[in-house]
Specification:
- The chain contains 8 helices and 8 strands, in the order E-E-E-H-H-E-H-E-H-E-H-H-E-E-H-H.
- The protein is α/β, with parallel strands linked by helices.
- The protein has a single domain (2-246), classed as Undecaprenyl pyrophosphate synthetase (3-Layer(aba) Sandwich).
- The strands form 2 sheets. The chain has a 6-stranded parallel sheet, sandwiched between helices. Strands 1-2 form a two-stranded antiparallel ribbon.
- Helix 4 links the parallel strand 5 (98-102) and strand 6 (130-137).
- The longest helix is centred in the N-terminal third of the chain and has 24 residues, at 71-94.
- Bound molecules: farnesyl diphosphate.
- The site of farnesyl diphosphate has 19 residues, from helix 1, helix 2, strand 4 and helix 3.
Length: 248
């Protein structure tokens, strides 16, 4: 955790940006308008994280299950992602953001895969906010690809099974060397993890809000951060041990 204006800030925030469709429906607009407004909200949150010096932000932009949505919605989301990559990358780079994409990217079009690769390469040397965009991502997919990699290493003799430990599993996952999220935010009222970062959220503080994603503004972020600052994170210890460790 980092200190900002006297209270604890999360080092890493993970977000499920839910509620774009309902936001649009309530305005009698097509769902696509909700996703466009969702992109504006994502840009706003990224800027806020840059300004506050948050280390990492992981946004769930498209889950492995989202491919099951009606084809026109999937198509328009892909168009939105492509435009967003092209229009946002210069500004992100200027702000020293390091971009990474996590998920089964081979399922995306060649043009989108190229856009992802180029954005990662362009921003690889930046030392500001690490921005992970989860696209075609699923927590089970992540664990499965880690298992495949580790089993491969064991079969080839580079890994001794009895020596496999938690840090090695963490490193084989998509977020690899990043610290686990301190704060998880889900907008839109549902209280589920929905196959997001299953391993990495083990000790994360989980914050759920009714606010629909396009309405997630500075005040909504402030509410989430103040809620987080009041949590006592024990990691399996007793409240007394935790207080002693905090004051050490
Ligand atoms: C969930 O709302 C949102 C999505 C599946 C897409 C998320 C995409 C964006 C926010 C825009 C792009 C952002 C980035 C960072 C590239 P929903 O459609 O499930 O809403 P509903 O539950 O109200 O139907």
């Amino acid at each position: 955790m980092t200190k900002d204006e006297g209270f604890s800030l999360p080092r890493h925030i993970a977000v499920i940006m839910d509620g774009n469709g309902r936001w649009a429906q309530r305005r009698l607009l097509p769902r696509q308008a909700g996703h466009r407004a969702g992109l504006t909200a994502a840009r706003r949150l990224i800027e806020a994280c840059v300004q506050r010096g948050i280390g990492a932000l992981t946004l769930f932009a498209f889950s492995s299950e989202n491919w099951r949505r009606p084809q026109p919605e999937v198509g328009s989301l892909m168009g939105l992602f492509m435009n967003a990559l092209e229009s946002e990358i210069a500004e992100l780079h200027k702000n020293k953001v390091r971009m990474r994409f996590i998920g089964a990217r081979e399922q995306f079009s060649a043009a989108l895969q190229q856009g992802m690769r180029e954005s990662e390469e362009l921003t690889a040397g930046n030392n500001g906010l690490v921005l992970n965009i989860a696209a075609g991502y699923g927590g089970r997919w992540d664990l499965l690809q880690a298992a495949r990699r580790l089993v491969g290493e064991a079969v080839s003799g580079r890994l001794r099974v009895e020596e496999l430990d938690e840090p090695q599993v963490s490193h084989a996952l998509a977020l690899a060397e990043l610290p686990d999220p301190d704060l998880f935010i889900r907008t839109g009222g549902e209280q589920r993890i929905s196959n997001f970062l299953l391993w990495n959220l083990a000790y994360t503080e989980l914050y759920f809000t009714e606010v629909l994603w396009p309405d997630f503004d500075a005040a909504a972020l402030e509410a989430a951060l103040s809620w987080f600052a009041q949590r006592q994170r024990r990691f399996g210890r007793t409240p007394e041990q935790t207080r002693d460790a905090d004051h050490a």
